[in-house]
Structures are given as C-alpha cells and as structure tokens.
Amino acid sequence: MAKRLEQGSLRELLGKEVRRRRTEAGLTQQQLGNIIHVVDSRIAQIETATGAKVTYDLCAALDAALGTGGLLSELYEHLRKETLPDWVRRFLDLQARARVIHEFSQIIPGLVQTEAYVRALFESGRVYANGDLEEKLAFRLGRQEILKAPNPPWLWIVLDESALYREVGGPEVMNEQLARLLELGEHPRVDVQVLPFNSRELAAIGSNLSLVTLPNGEKVAYTEGILAGLIFEDLEDVTRFTVIYDRLRANALPPAESAALIRKVMEERYSCPPSDLI
C-alpha cells in the first residue's frame, strides 16, 4: 500500500525542489527573490519549509521563474489538500464524482455562490487571515468547475427562504447572487426550489444537508455545522436523510414559483428592476 505523504514532508519536498532548481539556474536567493518580487528571506523560508506557508500565486511565480513546467503549482495543490480535514477531503471527492447532487441549505450553497458572496462570507468576523482568504476563495470557486463539465451532475437545490433575506455583503452582492440562482435555474440539469417561511417541515432546520449519488448508484449523505461535517454511508442513515430531503422538496415551492419569489425579493429588497434580472 502506498504511504500517504504527511503535510510536513510535502512542504519540505517543495522547498527542496525550489532550492535544487534555483541552484541549477545559478541564482542566489536574493536574485530569485528579485525576479518574483519577494525578499530573499522569503525564499530561504520556502526552501527550509519554515515561516508563512506558501500560496498558489507564489508557487506559480516560482514555476515561471525557474521553468519547472508547473511542478511547484502541482505540489502546492497536493499540499493544500493535505491541510484540509479528512471529512472535508472525503466529501469533496464524493461530490466531484457525483452524478446527482441534492442540497438543502440555509445560505446559498457553495456550488452556486458568486465570488463576491464567498468573499463576504469569509471576511465576516475576520475568520481567515488575508493570505488564507485568497486561497480559500480560489478553492471554493474552483469546486464549481464540476458544473461546467461536458457531462455535469444533476443538481437539485432546496433553499430555505431565509437565505434570500440574509444579507451577505450588501445589496449589490445579494442582487448578483440571486441573479446567479435565476440563471442557473434555467439550466436543464439544475433545479432551484425555495422552502417558504410558512412550511411546517422543520426536520433539517439548523443544519445543511447534501445527498450525492455516485456513478454506481450508491448514495451518501453529508451534514454540516459551523466547524465540522459528518458523512453517512450506512444504508439506514442515508435512507433517513433521503426521506427528510424528499419531504423538504415536497414542501418547497415549485421551481417556477421559487424563481418568481427570488425575483420579488430582488426587486423589493435589493433594488433590482425585474427587466434587469438575467
């Protein structure tokens, strides 16, 4: 069985590769720093796997300066994945392979968030340092590439009505985000439904729920809270979550009525004339 590299060894491997390539190119740390516009001490930190962690942009700049053909950027991607909790990596792998994705969320789900909406979420409460924010922003948006594939998964979103009114990033950000929902709702493989405030189906209120159906027909359920998520693969558990989701969907407004409600909220709350929606 292949041994999985630990985070520390990946970082050290990247540093050793930078040192080797720099030496082969006949560059000092200061000269390389001048090329990519960082101080020489930063190059020293990278090569010794100390100090602030590397970023994708920094690795891309080193690739260009050292002619590595993208090797350092590829190493960075592996390093970034190793820093994610196991449950996050596991769920994202399942989601990337899914043929059908069902989502219930009380905020706009990550797969359909706009860049401005994501940024506002991450900046809220200053949860991340500035460097981390840009990396996490790129990672979140990168997950949406599965919807642009030639044969994308079927995506069904049940969105709690509160998500339309919970203002993230200001009126302009919400205007753009709700317009994105309407645009995606026109896609043949995407359905968006809103669970109205007057619904009495409350089983999933307080958490987000995802169901993914894999190419072999297997289903997996995933619930997420503030700091952690849980993956359920046992048939009995998945069946229970499937029933909960089906009840949410049955109590939600149909797609056409949901789109009309989204338009109404945009017009009344976020100052968007109906003719400018999509």
UniProtKB/TrEMBL annotation:
The record, for SMART domains, names: HTH_XRE
> Which segments constitute the HTH cro/C1-type domain?
18-75
What InterPro entries has UniProt attached to this entry? Answer: Cro/C1-type_HTH, DUF5753, Lambda_DNA-bd_dom_sf
| Coiled-coil portions | none
What the entry lists under Pfam families is as follows: DUF5753, HTH_31
Q: What is this protein called?
A: Helix-turn-helix transcriptional regulator
Q: Which organism is the protein's source?
A: Streptomyces silvisoli
